[in-house]
């Protein structure tokens, strides 16, 4: 009986596989979509090779980057800060570049190691938090390239929200072997994990850092930055949302540096315990938080819809925020949930 059922099942499978050509139409359309998106993504992708001096020794870093466009006659390349850290010479390679071209750093936005926060034993939490914020950036770097030829910039997706389940492709140069594509899905948006990320199942390997994450229209949606490497972890990659990245890029192009956000709210020392609301201990007079309506005693719940319950979560969000833009703080006050749009000034 089992043998008959198995044979019938096989016949059913073969019947589907050998059906009319239109039964394969979806598969062909999907294939074409991935091939076209990959070809478009590759046009704006570059490999990055850096030579750095660390501890008196010469080291080589390999990474990836994305062409953003031309500014004042120079081509702008976006990558990660950790790719070009301590670099003395940087070279890029790509589909539109016959030979390697030397690149120069316009500005970097280094990130501190905020995933290992410890409760400060002898200093106030508000001072400790401010110290960490002063050292915390987005891990982005903007490079400049002088090139007589023409590069093809990425098409950037800014107006449409990313959805969990969307197919995406990651483009970069894993281990420096050459530009290549991996496919996957958007696993989560606004994921808090030592940063504020797009989480993706697309394969991200060493060398992919700084490369682009693209949708199936070939539009740039993120900058691949890291992956989870714990034992047993598979297909857990993280990318910086391109809208966050472009806000930082615009700051760099306009001012030569990043104007990180300062709100003027301080938190209580008791908040270092996990999963407790962040109690706003004090609000600086005349600060953006004060002007926007935040009051001492408010419990911070979320920033722009992202839940915040611990100091490290606050830092991981705040390091991506840029002065002069509107961010909505959601607080609890006397049992009532309230929302306040705040416009931060530059963090000094």
Please describe what this structure looks like.
Helix content is 22%, strand content 39%. A six-stranded antiparallel barrel has the order 1-2-3-6-5-4. A six-stranded antiparallel beta barrel has the order 8-9-10-13-12-11. Strands 15, 16, 17, 18, 19 and 20 form a six-stranded antiparallel β-sheet that branches. A hairpin with a 7-residue loop joins strand 8 and strand 9. The chain is globular. The N terminus is likely disordered.
Write the layout of secondary structure elements.
Layout: H1 2-17, H2 25-43, E1 45-54, E2 57-71, E3 74-80, H3 81-84, E4 87-94, E5 97-109, H4 125-134, E6 140-145, E7 155-156, E8 167-172, E9 180-192, E10 196-200, E11 212-215, E12 219-227, E13 237-241, H5 242-255, E14 261-262, E15 265-267, E16 278-283, H6 288-292, E17 299-303, E18 306-307, H7 311-318, E19 327-333, E20 336-342, E21 345-346
Parallel strand pairs: 7-12
Antiparallel strand pairs: 1-2, 1-4, 2-3, 3-6, 4-5, 5-6, 8-9, 8-11, 9-10, 10-13, 11-12, 12-13, 14-21, 15-16, 16-17, 17-18, 17-19, 19-20
Give a brief description.
The protein is an alpha+beta fold. The protein is built from seven helices and 21 strands.
Beta-strand share of residues: 35-45%
The assembly state of the depicted protein chains is single chain
* Average pLDDT rating: 82
Order of secondary-structure elements: HHEEEHEEHEEEEEEEEHEEEHEEHEEE
**Could you give a short account of the major beta sheet?**
6 strands, antiparallel, barrel
Basic shape? globular
Strand order of the largest sheet: 1-2-3-6-5-4
Structural class: alpha+beta
Question: What's the β-strand tally?
Answer: 21
Structural Rg: 23 Å
Helix count? 7
Poorly predicted residue ranges: 1-18, 113-135
Estimate percent helicity: 10-25%
Please give the alpha-carbon distance between the first and last residues.
Answer: 78 Å
């Amino acid at each position: 009986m089992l043998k008959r059922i198995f044979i019938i099942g096989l016949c059913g499978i073969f019947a589907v596989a050998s059906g009319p050509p239109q039964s394969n139409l979806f598969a062909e359309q999907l294939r074409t979509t991935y091939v076209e998106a990959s070809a478009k993504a590759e046009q704006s992708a570059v490999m990055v090779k850096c030579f750095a001096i660390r501890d008196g020794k010469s080291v080589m870093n390999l990474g990836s980057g994305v062409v953003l466009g031309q500014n004042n006659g120079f081509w702008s390349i976006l990558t990660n800060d950790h790719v070009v850290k301590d670099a003395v010479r940087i070279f890029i390679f790509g589909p539109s570049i016959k030979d390697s071209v030397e690149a120069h750093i316009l500005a970097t936005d280094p990130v501190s190691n905020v995933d290992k926060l410890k409760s400060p034993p002898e200093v106030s939490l508000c001072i400790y938090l401010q110290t960490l914020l002063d050292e915390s950036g987005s891990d982005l770097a903007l490079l400049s390239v002088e090139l007589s030829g023409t590069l093809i910039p990425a098409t950037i997706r800014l107006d449409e929200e990313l959805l969990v389940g969307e197919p995406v492709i990651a483009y970069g140069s894993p281990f420096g072997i050459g530009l290549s594509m991996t496919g996957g899905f958007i696993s989560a948006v606004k994921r808090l994990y030592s940063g504020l990320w797009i989480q993706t199942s697309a394969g991200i390997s060493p060398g992919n850092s700084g490369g682009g994450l693209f949708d199936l229209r070939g539009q740039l949606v993120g900058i691949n930055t890291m992956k989870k490497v714990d034992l047993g972890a598979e297909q857990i990659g993280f990318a910086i949302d391109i809208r966050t990245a472009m806000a930082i890029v615009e700051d760099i192009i306009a001012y030569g540096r990043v104007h990180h956000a300062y709100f003027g709210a301080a938190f209580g020392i008791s908040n270092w315990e996990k999963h407790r609301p962040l109690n706003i201990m004090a609000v600086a007079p005349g600060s953006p938080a004060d002007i926007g309506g935040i009051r001492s005693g408010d419990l911070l719940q979320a920033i722009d819809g992202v839940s915040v319950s611990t100091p490290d979560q606050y830092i991981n969000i705040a390091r991506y925020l840029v002065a002069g833009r509107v961010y909505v703080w959601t607080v609890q006050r006397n049992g009532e949930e309230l929302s306040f749009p705040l416009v931060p000034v530059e963090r000094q």
